[in-house]
Design a protein that fits this description.
8-stranded parallel beta barrel, 10 helices, two-stranded antiparallel sheet, globular, 12 strands, alpha/beta, 312 residues, 36% helix
Amino acid sequence: MSRSLNNGYSIPLIGLGIHKLVHASEIHQVVKLAIDAGYRHFDCAWIYGTEAAVAKAIHEKIKEGVIKREDVYITTKLWNNYHQRKDVVEKLRESLQEMKFCYVDLYLIHWPLGFKVNANSLPLNEGPSAYSDVDYVETWQGMEDCVYQGYTRSIGLANFNSEQITRILKNANIKPTVNHIEVHPRLNQKKIIEFCTQRNILVTGYCPLGINEMGGVPNFPEPTICDEKIDEIARKHRKTAAQVVLNYLISLGICVVTRCSNQFRIREHIDIFDFQLDSQDVEYLDSCNRNQRICAFSAFVDHKYYPFHVEF
C-alpha cells in the first residue's frame, strides 16, 4: 500500500529506517529479511553510514529475482555540513556511488540548520563557531539541481516547521513532496500534518513507537507501546501494542518509518492493515498527545534555523 506524492510518484506506507545498527553485516541481514517480509521502502541518510550496506542487500535481492529496482523506494538525506548549493549535488552523487544506484527515489534536507563544512558532523559542545549561516532556501536550490540532473525523482524536507516550509514554498521551483518528522502518540503532530496536507505535502513519521536510544533515561518520555490501555486495545484486536500504534498513525494520513532488527518485529510492524480501530480506541490514542519530543536536537537550540521554537 502506498500514498501519492504531489509529483505523480507514490511512496509505500510503511518504511524501514536503517539507523545505528552496529555492523554492516547486521544491516545487510535486516534489509534482506525486510524485503522477504514485504517491505519496499528503505529510509537511509548519509549521517547514518548505512547506505552501502542497505544497497548491498537490495542489489542481492534484485540479482535473486525477488525484486526489481523499480519495486523499491529508497530515501536518503543531505547532512547539515553540506548546505551550500554547490555541495548538494556532489553529496548525493557520493551517496549514489556508495549505493551503486543511478538515482534515489527521495532526497531530503535532513535538518534546516547547517554546520560549517569543516566542522564535525555532529559538533556537540562546539557552539556557534561550528554553525553555518547558509540559508536553507539556497540548499533547496541545490536539491532542485539534483532533480534536474536526474539523481533523484523526488525531493523533500525533514524536521522543518510550518514557517520554514512556507519560506521554501515561496521560493521553490519544485515543490517539496515530503516533510519527514517525528510522529508518535505522545507527539501526534496533528497541526503540522494538517498544514502539510493543505499544501499537498505528505508527512512521513519517524520514531512512530516513541522509542530511541534514550529510552529508560530518567525523565525521558515513556514509549506509548508501554501504555497499559494501548495494550488492552491491542488484546481486543488480537494485535500487539506496536501494531495498534502504527495503525493509528497511518489513519492520520501519513506514512511511517519504523526501526526494528529482528525477524519477528520486522513482520509485526508491516502486518497492520487487517484491522480497524474503533472510535473509542482513536479517542484514547488522541488523548495520549503530550507534545513530548524525543528527538529535539536540543544541543543546537541556539542555531538561528533551529526548527522547534514555534508551535508547529
